Amino acid sequence: MKYAIITGASKGLGEAIAKRLIHEQIAIVSVSRTENEEIKRMALEKGLYYNHFSCNLSLEKEVQEVFMDIAHCLFQKDPKEILLFNNAGVIEPIQTVGNLDQTPTIRNIQVNLIAPILITNLFFSKAQLTNTKVQVINVTSGAAIRSIEGWSVYCSSKAGLNMFTQTAALEQAEMKTDNKIIAFSPGIMDTNMQETIRSSSKNAFKELERFKEFKENNMLLQADVVANALVDLVISGNVESGKVYNVKELVGE
Ligand SMILES: NC(=O)c1ccc[n+]([C@@H]2O[C@H](COP(=O)([O-])OP(=O)(O)OC[C@H]3O[C@@H](n4cnc5c(N)ncnc54)[C@H](OP(=O)(O)O)[C@@H]3O)[C@@H](O)[C@H]2O)c1
């Protein structure tokens, strides 16, 4: 049996990934601060294993405790494969350097970078002791490779996530494990994160008007289109470990 752990499954891209995986008969472990009742209903209707774990990914202790619980739950089922989608992310603080507040800055790095590192570490560690293959999908951003004024913290967290992915992949290859780890850049999607971006201030975010135009001109990708492209890749078995995939190459734009 395959199990998928999806952080940030309550809304946006994570919700769309969970729905598509349910369609593929893959068991779901959802992790976020709020539970998405529709996903729960869909999984249970299909007779699939479903579990939601409430976790604030910006709190290191909660991450350690909750993911130890998740690992305990899943590895005792001797799963064939675990798909770990490190998808949850935050854009804030949107602010120029010199005007950053400490709390949202630390929270951003915790959710976008430290939590994925800790969770991946735990699951690769557990996989060493079992026959389970672990495949990690780190949701990154084009902002990892393009500096965007006002987004220094977000850009840095995603750049760090790309490098973590590439380094961990080299190590797994050297150790000749079956585990894989990739990063995936989903493009600009019509989710709550874009609403947050459009409601930021012009002083803090130079490209504000451009991002408002993306929405007005219907240029945003729908989360279900992006999720389908990603899940197609992941279940194809043709994933190139260490690669940073971009949605554009998967949907053929
Ligand atoms: N939208 C875009 O245009 C875009 C572009 C490039 C990359 N991305 C990346 O795509 C991923 C998904 O983004 P999205 O657009 O779907 O965002 P979204 O609609 O804002 O959803 C974010 C998800 O992350 C969870 N989350 C946020 N903070 C959390 C915390 N402290 N603890 C636990 N869960 C937390 C939220 O769950 P709760 O609120 O229930 O906790 C929610 O499910 C992110 O990694 C983002 O950086 C998005």
Automatic annotation (TrEMBL):
This is Benzil reductase ((S)-benzoin forming). One of its GO terms (molecular function) is oxidoreductase activity. Pfam families: adh_short. InterPro entries: Biopterin_syn/organic_redct, NAD(P)-bd_dom_sf, Sc_DH/Rdtase_CS, SDR_fam. It comes from Neobacillus rhizosphaerae. The keyword Plastid does not apply. The gene is yueD. It is found in: Cytoplasm. Keywords: Cytoplasm, NADP, Oxidoreductase. Its main location: cytoplasm. Its EC number is 1.1.1.320. Belongs to the short-chain dehydrogenases/reductases (SDR) family. PANTHER family: SEPIAPTERIN REDUCTASE.
